[in-house]
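Note to self: keep these together.
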Amino acid sequence: MTYTRIGAILHEIGMVSEAQMHRTLAEAANYADEPLEEHYEAACALEEFGVAVSVHADDIDPRTWRYLDFERQPHRGYDSIMVLATPEQAQALQARLAFTFPN
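Structure:
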């Protein structure tokens, strides 16, 4: 597995545009064709392509990723927002800021 292969797959399945694939591979030009020795390195590559985030895991055990829903205006594009929160924190966000977390 290489960055070049990962980029091609991400583009083929519609997760990144061709332009994004080429930009990321240009930034990784020095190592784009070198084999990744660990599956973890391949997972980290997803972040480089902009389709994943990395979170330091020291203090996140009771927390889970939750899709955040919010009031939306018609005919306007929005990013998906994910929140790393405990059940109590999610309840507080809902009670205090009127965010919802659909199942």
